[in-house]
C-alpha cells in the first residue's frame, strides 16, 4: 500500500513487524478494538465541539469527522456481526495516554496540543490500515484500504486547525509529539490493541 509521502514524513517511524504478527494472531481483538477506536475518535470530535463553541471552522470539521468515525464504527461492527464476533469492551491501550499526558493545561496550548495529538492518532491509524491490508482476507483488506483516504484527511484537518488556532509557530511542538508518538508505538504493552506496541503478554 502506498501512503501519501507527507503522512509518512509526519510520522517518525513505522509500525513494527512484531505488532503486525500479533494482529494476525488476534483477529477478534483487532476488530473489536478498531471499533472502539472509531467510537473514541467520534467522541473526541464531539468533545471538541462542545468545548470550543466559538470556533466555526473547528465545529464544521469536527462535525464531519464525528459522522465519518461513527459510520466507520457501524461498518466495523457489521463486519464483526457477519463473522460471529461479539462486540465487547476492551481495556484501553496506553498509546493515547502516552501522548495526552504531555498536553498543556492552559489555552491556547491545550487546544493546539489536543489537535496535534489527534493528528498523530489519525495518521498512525492510516499507516496501520495500510500495513495490515496486505495480510488480511480480501473483504477486510479492501475495507481497510477504503479507510485510508478519510483517515489521511482527518490528520490533515487536525493539523490545519492546530496551526490556525496557535498563537505562534508550532513546528517544535509537532516535532515533540512526533518523537513521543514514535516511542509510544514501540513501547511494550501487556495486551494487544489497535494502537498498542507489541504486547509482551497477550491476554
UniProtKB/TrEMBL annotation:
GO molecular function: tRNA 2-(methylsulfanyl)-N(6)-isopentenyladenosine(37) hydroxylase activity
Biological process (GO), any one: tRNA modification
Stretches that traverse the bilayer: none
Name assigned to this protein: tRNA-(Ms[2]io[6]A)-hydroxylase
Extent of the signal sequence: none
Source organism: Halopseudomonas xinjiangensis
InterPro entries: Ferritin-like, Ferritin-like_SF, tRNA-Hydrxlase_MiaE
A Pfam family it matches: MiaE
SUPFAM superfamilies, sorted: Ferritin-like
CDD domains with a match to the protein in the record: MiaE (cd07910)
Amino acid at each position: 500500500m502506498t501512503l501519501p509521502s507527507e503522512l509518512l514524513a509526519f510520522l517518525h517511524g513505522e509500525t513494527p513487524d512484531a505488532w503486525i504478527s500479533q494482529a494476525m494472531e488476534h483477529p477478534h481483538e483487532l476488530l473489536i478494538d478498531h471499533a472502539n477506536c472509531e467510537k473514541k475518535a467520534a467522541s473526541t470530535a464531539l468533545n471538541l465541539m462542545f468545548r470550543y463553541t466559538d470556533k466555526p471552522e473547528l465545529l464544521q470539521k469536527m462535525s464531519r469527522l464525528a459522522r465519518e468515525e461513527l459510520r466507520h464504527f457501524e461498518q466495523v461492527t457489521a463486519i464483526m456481526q457477519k463473522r460471529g464476533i461479539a462486540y465487547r469492551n476492551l481495556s484501553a491501550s496506553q498509546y493515547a495516554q502516552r501522548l495526552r499526558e504531555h498536553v498543556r493545561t492552559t489555552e491556547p496550548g491545550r487546544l493546539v496540543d489536543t489537535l496535534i495529538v489527534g493528528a498523530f492518532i489519525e495518521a498512525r491509524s492510516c499507516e496501520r490500515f495500510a500495513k495490515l491490508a496486505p495480510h488480511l482476507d480480501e473483504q477486510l483488506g479492501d475495507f481497510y484500504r477504503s479507510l485510508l483516504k478519510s483517515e489521511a484527511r482527518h490528520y490533515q484537518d487536525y493539523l490545519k486547525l492546530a496551526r490556525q488556532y496557535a498563537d505562534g509557530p508550532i513546528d517544535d511542538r509537532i516535532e515533540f509529539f512526533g518523537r513521543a508518538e514514535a516511542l509510544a508505538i514501540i513501547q511494550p504493552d501487556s495486551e494487544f490493541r489497535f494502537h498498542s506496541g507489541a504486547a509482551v503478554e497477550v491476554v
